[in-house]
Design goal:
Strand order of the largest sheet: 5-4-3-2-6-7-12-8
Distance between the termini: 40 Å
Number of helices: 13
Structural class: alpha+beta
Radius of gyration: 23 Å
Strand content: 15-25%
Shape: elongated
Number of strands: 18
Largest sheet: 8 strands, mixed
């Protein structure tokens, strides 16, 4: 993964390796476990593109193998990644170790039982099972077979391959918890899944920075080109890449989906919501919710100003997904640039306008930011 405006730079400079901190993995996975203690029980988990010597995903699930009641843990590494280039003790001390294959082949690690008779299952019981035939690319046939064996896929895939990774997961109809950026919501491969409630955001709240371990090359790039706090932060004397819009995507329940927003009426919002009143006056010079020029819907500038008593279609900030309850609202479509081309507007009546860049909402001739088109469900 990469961060903020550095996302494009990282992709262009091939800095595509950001490693998730143990604490962030722990926070997210504990939410699913606390909601349902059996969520991982009896499951085979695949951690693609991981290596137990440097991947915190592998370390976390190995450390919690017994607590979660896991059946099997499978980790594969990608030979061309910076982490896989490191020689792990698991590999070096194994009879399968091959100095030539270490540099060119992906690696396979598994965890199923207490191998050292310590009385507990943990990272010391991870077994290096040898080298893959190829470099460990998740799209290879051998990694696909491991995917098909698994019940659940959990990882932080390379952000440049997020679309392909999502398609790869859904191709096999597997449960998943994967890390991405909030920008992924607007992908044509992703939004239809969110709209149809086949994928949703995870437990972690939006607008919270995440920090990642990065390669030495990217550290040098950040320190040289960026200011601390904008794209990185020094934590415990280590340069950590910053990503403000990181979020988890999943199809597992953690309880957040059932939390309904407490909303006020249209009249009360327009009377008492100072922030709403201020933006309506300043931006549109009106004192009511404006209607779009090109959509049969009204503009809602802030999530907390969604009226409780409006039954029509509303355009709301995309950050609404962080509080989305599918029992409370339905997602009708999306209004943003090129969303008409991607057919994201669905059945919401629309009149094309040159200014809308292929789908953005327009109010009084002024284009607004990307919006989700939602409707309140009848209770």
């Amino acid at each position: 993964m990469a961060g903020n405006t550095t996302l494009t730079e990282a992709k262009n400079n091939k800095f595509d390796e950001f490693y998730t901190r143990y604490t962030d993995i722990e926070e997210e996975m504990n939410a699913y476990y606390e909601y349902n203690h059996d969520v991982f029980r009896g499951k085979t988990i695949l951690l693609p593109c991981d290596d137990p010597e440097w991947s915190n995903f592998t370390k976390y699930f190995a450390s919690n193998f017994s607590r979660f009641g896991l059946k099997k843990l499978i980790s594969t590494s990608y030979a061309k990644s910076a982490g896989s280039e490191q020689l792990s003790l698991f590999e070096k001390n194994s009879p399968f170790y091959n100095v030539k294959k270490h540099k060119t082949h992906g690696k396979l690690f598994t965890l199923t039982h207490d191998t050292d008779n310590s009385g507990q299952i943990d990272t010391d019981d991870i077994e290096f099972r040898g080298y893959l035939k190829g470099d460990g690319d998740f799209r290879s046939e051998e990694v696909k077979k491991l995917r098909d064996e698994a019940d659940l896929i959990i990882t932080n895939p390379p952000f440049s391959l997020f679309r392909e990774f999502v398609a790869w997961v859904f191709e096999a109809h597997k449960d998943f918890i994967i890390l991405g950026t909030f920008n992924n919501v607007a992908y044509k491969e992703v939004f239809p899944l969110i709209k149809s409630n086949k994928m949703w955001l995870g437990y972690r709240k939006l607008n919270r920075d995440m920090y990642f371990s990065v390669t030495d090359a990217y550290k040098q790039h950040l320190v040289k080109e960026k200011k601390e706090s904008s794209a990185y932060k020094i934590i415990d004397d280590t340069v950590m890449g910053r990503l403000a819009n990181a979020c988890w995507y999943t199809d597992l329940d953690n309880g957040r989906l059932h939390e309904s927003m407490q909303l006020d009426t249209e009249a009360n919002n327009l009377k008492f919501n100072k922030k709403l009143k201020r933006v309506l006056k300043k931006k549109f010079n009106i004192d009511t919710y404006p209607k779009y020029d090109n959509y049969d819907a009204i503009e809602i500038p802030y999530v907390d100003s969604i009226p409780s008593d409006y039954s029509g279609v509303m355009g709301v900030p995309v950050s609404f997904l962080g509080k989305y309850n599918p029992q409370q609202f339905s997602i009708e479509g999306m209004a943003a640039g090129n969303t008409r081309l991607n057919k994201f507007n669905y059945k919401v009546p629309y009149s094309p306008m040159k200014i809308d860049r292929g789908g953005c909402g327009v109010v009084n001739g002024v284009r607004v930011y990307s919006r989700l088109l939602i409707r309140k469900r009848e209770q």
